[in-house]
From TrEMBL:
The keyword Kinase does not apply. Transmembrane segments: none annotated. InterPro entries: Peptidyl-Arg-deiminase_porph, TAT_signal. This is Agmatine deiminase family protein. Keywords: Hydrolase, Signal. It comes from Streptomyces microflavus.
Length: 385
């Protein structure tokens, strides 16, 4: 949900999803502070170190979890219908490859069913505030022996920026629905803030996680240890990130992704772009090329060229044009196109080369992009144990 190139490279960087943050805070009022206080509640049991591990995303999935947005307080009356249409398109596309379960509030479930179609299962037993399942949903782990459990990252509305009383409970409720044992991590974060290679290496931005709006007073050393314990990893590759310019404080999953252990991908800005996010992307690329994996091996880094914002369809300054925010499902890569035909085609070709044997589906999700998010942001995989 972060790092993309700006429409005007020499100008100030807009605050993506700023209208969402403002609307959400207006709606929640005093209740937000109460939820913030409970979001970091004492965890239940701690997972046994080394037993479970979050696998890389390209493993086989049991299903994909998504959430249906219905809040005009967050989205506004004018934008909500378009966001819902994009969510439905993503869900229908993924459902061609694997089961999709859509969480919806009772009042909007019929609309979700109508737009998503019969290939998507809509349930009303887990209420939601918004659609960002990557951040609110559980992080599933496997043990390589048929075991599955789930970890909650104590979602607090990206540091108290948006209403989240329902979303703060989504991770635990999904885990209960699946029957997976559930634990709270000992830090506050979101799934989009952490990338894993499934073999012991993580990557993340300091701006998002080492932030007093999530983990006040926590040192990088302590946070690294807690992240590794939660994910079954042993190393974190840290990037500085970008503070305070979008609601996520610069999530890594719109810029850098793991392709495999020892292989990463970074979406690069145009050579003429020099805003904070362009500098961030170049730093992420440099750090990854100089990094090693948890096992000590070298890191091969693929460059994924971002689009030219002067050639994309959207003219909205808050638009996020991230090819890197793709989602892997069984047999397919679900990505986006933005109207820069040359860059769109090149991105599709890059993803096809990096994921041979998978179909590459490119979708027009411009309304979601205007909201500052992408396909990875609104999906959460449940791996096969």
């Amino acid at each position: 949900m972060s790092s993309s190139t700006p429409r005007t490279p020499s100008g100030p960087r807009p605050n993506r999803r700023r209208f969402l943050a403002a609307a959400g805070l207006t709606a929640v009022g005093a209740a937000l502070a109460a939820v913030q206080g409970s979001a970091g509640a004492a965890p239940v049991r701690r997972p046994t170190a080394g037993t479970y591990r979050v696998p890389i995303e390209d493993v086989r999935h049991t299903r994909t979890w998504m959430a249906w947005p219905d809040s005009t307080a967050i989205w506004g009356r004018g934008a909500l219908a378009g966001i819902q249409a994009d969510i439905a398109l993503i869900a229908r596309t993924i459902a061609r490859y694997e089961p999709v379960v859509m969480l919806a509030n009772s009042a909007s479930a019929s609309k979700a069913r109508s737009q998503c179609g019969t290939s998507v299962t809509v349930i009303t037993s887990i209420p939601v505030d918004d659609c960002w399942m990557r951040d609110t949903g559980p992080v599933f782990r496997t043990d390589g022996a048929g075991g599955l459990d789930a970890v909650g990252l104590n979602f607090n509305g990206w540091g108290g920026k948006q209403a989240h009383a329902k979303d703060a409970l989504v991770a635990e409720r999904i885990a209960a629905y699946t029957g997976a044992p559930f634990t709270h991590a000992e830090f506050v974060g979101e799934g989009g803030a952490i990338e894993q290679d499934g073999a012991g290496t993580l990557m993340a931005t300091r701006s998002s996680l080492l932030n007093r709006n999530r983990n006040p007073g926590m040192s990088e050393r302590t946070l690294t240890a807690e992240m590794c314990e939660a994910y079954g990893a042993s190393k974190v590759i840290w990037f500085d990130g970008v503070h305070g310019q979008d609601i996520t404080d610069d999530h890594v999953d719109a810029t850098s992704r793991f392709l495999a252990p020892g292989e990463a991908l970074v979406q690069m800005p145009l050579a003429t772009d020099n805003d904070a996010y362009a500098k961030d992307a170049r730093q992420q690329h440099r750090i990854l090329t100089e990094s090693t994996t948890a096992a000590g091996g070298p890191m091969a880094v693929t460059r994924l060229q971002g689009p030219d914002y002067d050639r994309i369809r959207s003219g909205n300054p808050d638009f996020l044009a991230s090819y890197a925010n793709y989602y892997l499902c069984n047999g397919a890569v679900i990505s986006a196109h933005f109207g820069d035909s040359r860059a769109d085609a090149a991105a599709k070709a890059t993803l096809a080369r990096r994921y041979p044997g998978r179909a590459v589906e490119q979708l027009n999700i411009d309304r979601l992009g205007t909201g500052g998010g992408g396909i990875h942001c609104v999906t959460q995989q449940q791996p096969v144990p």
